[in-house]
Design goal:
Rossmann fold, alpha/beta, globular, seven-stranded parallel β-sheet, 9 helices, about 45% helix, 9 strands, single chain
Length: about 260
């Protein structure tokens, strides 16, 4: 049986994956943003080993989260699933650390947790086919000078997560590092954005659970049921390394 840590597992796809894994007899450590969400996650996911708490919009809390999560490891698989999607929000929100919120929560926290935690056998980064419209604007990833568009900011982070997955896979040959596209799924995020998604969280969570405990690596290290796949820009080692270097500079943690 595997031991799996899933960020962003108090609701949605992460929670559905946790439920599926626990039903299969695996050990699962959950993550929630705050105490209230942690209590709800425990109620909705009986059988979880523990729920660790940390707000990924704060580097200090992300460090604390990593320290607490490590107590329940080592992990066979770490799933970097946490994310926010303010696709239709016209307001650019900035974290306590001075970064655009989606960039810090979706991209920088995924890098930071991966760098801080002991290496598992498998890493999974929850991305999206929206990465296809993402732009690698590493000179202004927080839209400090560029006109802010929520959908573009979100797509950029989904591109980042593919680059991180492929970059870690190349640098850490002993770790299977995979980007996961759950598809267009009905979650709290999509409902807030007014989307009528055709898939439910249980479907995507089941796929994620299978990927978390499997041994095969999908083509291009990208698991999807849609037609879009990583292109040459995502596969370019220079682009991967440029993002990894930027993440190291902004977080202060080098892999």
């Amino acid at each position: 049986m595997a031991r799996v840590f899933i960020t962003g597992s108090s609701t949605g796809i992460g929670q559905a994956a946790a439920v599926a894994l626990i039903a299969q007899g695996h050990e699962v450590v959950l993550h929630a943003r705050n105490e209230q969400r942690a209590a709800e996650a425990a109620r909705q996911t009986p059988g979880a080993t523990e729920t660790v708490i940390g707000d990924l919009s704060s580097f200090a809390e992300t460090h604390e989260l990593a320290r607490n999560a490590e107590k329940f490891g080592p992990y066979d698989t770490i799933v970097l699933n946490a994310g926010i999607g303010r696709l239709h929000d016209p307001e650019r929100r900035v974290t306590v650390d001075g970064h655009e919120e989606m960039f810090q929560v979706n991209t920088l926290s995924a890098y930071l947790l991966t760098a801080l935690l002991p290496r598992p056998k498998r890493l999974i980064f929850t991305s999206s086919a929206l990465a296809g419209s993402g732009v690698l604007a590493l000179d202004d990833p927080s839209f400090a000078r560029t006109r802010y568009v929520g959908r573009q900011a979100y797509a950029n982070t989904k591109l980042h997560l593919i680059l991180l997955a492929l970059g870690f896979d190349r640098r850490w040959p002993e770790v299977d590092s995979i980007a996961f596209d759950p598809g267009w799924v009905a979650t709290q995020m999509t409902i807030r954005n007014g989307d009528e998604a055709p898939l439910d969280a249980a479907h995507a969570g089941g796929r994620l659970a299978t990927l978390a405990t499997g041994t095969e690596v999908p083509e291009d290290n990208y698991d999807t049921q849609r037609s879009w796949r990583p292109q040459e820009d995502e596969k370019d080692a220079k682009n991967q390394d440029s993002l990894l270097t930027l993440c190291a500079e902004l977080t202060g943690v080098t892999i």
